[in-house]
Design a protein that fits this description.
Layout (H helix, E strand, L loop, with lengths): L1 H15 L6 H16 L5 H4 L21 H7 L1 H11 L2 E3 L8 E3 L3 H6 L6 E2 H5 L5 H9 L18 H6 L9 H15 L7 E4 L1 H18 L7 H23 L2 H11 L3 H24 L6 H7 L10 H31 L2 H12 L6 H4 L3 H13 L4 E7 L3 E2 L5 E2 L4 E5 H7 L5 H7 L42 H18 E4 L9 E3 L3 E3 L5 E5 L1
Parallel strand pairs: 2-8
Antiparallel strand pairs: 1-2, 3-5, 4-12, 5-8, 6-7, 9-12, 10-11
The structure holds protoporphyrin IX containing FE.
Protein name: Cytochrome P450 CYP5204
Family: Belongs to the cytochrome P450 family.
Organism: Phycomyces blakesleeanus (strain ATCC 8743b / DSM 1359 / FGSC 10004 / NBRC 33097 / NRRL 1555)
Length: 525
């Protein structure tokens, strides 16, 4: 019973983030939510022509309503290992509102690297973050995005793939440093020995937004406090809206999102600031004097017929980079700080490494092997139990002969893959003999570990950024921001928690892992 209460608490925390004014709305809709959330899942075996023997089996579950959630939450990988032993590498779980097919081991790369015509991550993630729909509900009455033409380069992905490569990140260095120094002066200007307890989520979303907005929108408007705070909350608002849209009938979900979770204010701010700025930038592009930003990249990216996007359309797309970058980077940064908060010796060793640098900036902090190893270990250990939500756009034929039916949600057993290690990589196997077992955190694991072991290298042993052609193109930028931010914090503060122990991660529905809610105490040195 306590576990069920934990799940409800976790849900409630995500939805409200402690705001009591949402309670009446939650109460009114609770009945419908529970009905829709916990009603039996349609059985694909009854609605498809696929031979039922080829469809991965639904794992038996003891509890009719919450299915596998308690077992998953309690057993971590133990339960998933039992499922693999009994049902093979692919099986279906009963998780309210999701009922995913779970893929494990070698099947994970097959799914992640599938053609986007067969399996779509972007469609799958919409089940969690229905950004387009929330945007339409919030803003269609003011501005409607132009329909996407499949012959155009994707405006949310292409500019990042082309311009955020590892050898091009240095152009953002000064803006990242200025952004962080503004935060440190404003929020953490402590005298030696003075301490401050900091709520990580608010602090980090704002810090990452403050470092990133000048890179994405430019130095003129990128430091605007309204733009920074609106981009910091955008994803969180959309995730909350997504929970209502997923579980309520569309007429009610849409009405609640329009009224309670609208992001109209945030998009208004973007349009008000960016439209005049981009009008100026277009002139500068013609004169060859424009600053490198996400917006200026998009402004210069021709459509399939050679024409350019309008200023309004470009400003409207700005939200896409905030959506893909700020929440993800803050989420990982929070795990990093929680891991450091209970390891004072590691902080001291890292401080010595940072002290050896000629100067402290994103280029130099990117080169510290222990910091890179630490970040990779954070990504390895704090990954979702089940994640990388993807949608089967067609029946998906797997290498073991099984078929996942069209329309199904597919999730990968990410933590299990990270903890089981990779087979056939001799250097890593030899190296890991000197490290702690794979189910324990070891910040030194990837120091001198051989090829493909940097934090931004993607493979079966590091699934945090996905795999293949669609692996996260923003990972070099994110890693640079995180390492630089951690270094500046380590050089100024000792980190601890009120209890002296690392806070517990929260696990939502037995699948997604969130950083501890406990604050971190910064003590100036
Ligand atoms: C630590 C922070 C981040 C994490 C953990 C992360 C993780 C991911 C993951 C798992 C994917 C899906 C990959 C796949 O489908 O295989 C992805 C895609 C993407 N990410 Fe990130 N990301 C982070 C930061 C960023 C940043 C800073 C940006 C932008 C500057 C960004 C832009 C994107 C884009 C545009 C895609 C879609 C790529 C495509 O579909 O081709 N991400 N990210």
């Amino acid at each position: 019973m306590q576990r069920i209460q934990d799940q409800i608490d976790a849900h409630y925390w995500i939805i409200t983030n402690g705001q009591s004014w949402i309670k009446p709305v939650t109460a009114i809709t609770l009945g419908i939510v529970l009905y829709k959330l916990f009603s039996p899942a349609p059985d694909p075996r009854k609605t498809t022509t696929i031979d039922p023997k080829l469809i991965p089996e639904l794992v038996a579950y003891p509890l009719p309503i919450i299915g596998h959630v308690p077992t998953l939450s309690k057993g971590r990988n133990n339960f998933l290992k039992e499922c693999v032993d009994r049902y093979g590498p692919v099986f279906q779980l009963r998780i309210p509102g999701q009922n995913p097919y779970v893929v494990t081991g070698d099947i994970i790369p097959d799914i992640m690297k599938s053609s986007t015509k067969i399996v779509s991550f972007l469609e799958g993630i919409k089940t969690l973050i229905p950004a387009t729909h929330v945007m339409e509900l919030s803003y269609d009455h003011k501005y409607k995005a132009a329909p996407f033409n499949s012959r155009d380069k994707n405006p949310a992905i292409y500019p990042i793939k082309q311009n955020f490569k590892s050898d091009k990140i240095h152009v953002f260095s000064e803006r990242i440093q200025t952004g962080l120094h503004i935060v440190l002066k404003r929020d953490l200007d402590l005298k030696p020995g003075e301490s401050k307890s900091v709520n990580m989520w608010d602090f980090l979303t704002n810090t990452v937004s403050q470092m990133s907005c000048p890179c994405f929108a430019g130095s003129v408007v990128g430091y605007d406090s309204e733009l920074i705070s609106s981009m910091a909350v955008l994803t969180q608002k959309i995730i909350r809206a997504g929970i209502f849209l997923a579980v309520l009938p569309s007429w009610l979900g849409d009405a609640i999102v329009r009224r309670v979770f609208s992001v109209e204010k945030e998009i208004d701010i973007t349009m008000r600031l960016l439209v005049p700025e981009l009008t100026r930038t277009r002139e500068e592009i013609l004169n060859g004097t424009s600053e490198v930003t996400f917006s200026s990249m998009l402004l210069s990216l021709p459509l399939h017929d050679g024409s350019l996007r309008s200023i309004e359309e470009t400003a409207f797309w700005f939200k896409s980079i905030a959506l893909s970058s700020i929440h993800t980077t803050s989420h990982i940064s929070s795990f990093c700080l929680h891991e450091l908060s209970c390891r004072p010796e590691l902080v001291e060793t890292l401080r010595n490494e940072i002290n050896r640098l000629d100067s402290l900036n994103p280029e130099t902090t990117a080169t510290i092997p222990l910091l890179d190893s630490f970040l990779r270990e954070v990504l390895r250990c704090n990954i979702d139990y089940l994640g990388h939500h993807s949608l089967a756009l067609q029946d998906v034929q797997l290498r073991n002969g099984q078929i996942i039916p069209k329309g199904s949600l597919i999730m990968s057993a990410l933590l299990l893959a990270h903890e089981q290690g990779i087979s056939g990589q001799a250097t890593q196997d030899n190296h890991t003999k000197t490290c702690l077992p794979l189910d324990q955190f070891d910040a030194y694991r990837f120091v001198d570990a051989g090829e493909d072991t940097n934090a931004t290298d993607v493979n079966l042993a590091n699934l945090a950024f996905g795999l293949g052609a669609h692996a996260c193109p923003g990972r070099y930028f994110a890693a640079n921001e995180i390492k630089y931010m951690l270094s500046e914090l380590i050089m100024r503060f000792n980190l601890s928690t009120p209890s002296g122990k690392r806070g517990e991660n929260s696990v939502l529905l037995g699948t997604s892992v969130f950083p501890p809610k406990t604050p971190i105490v910064f003590t100036a040195i």
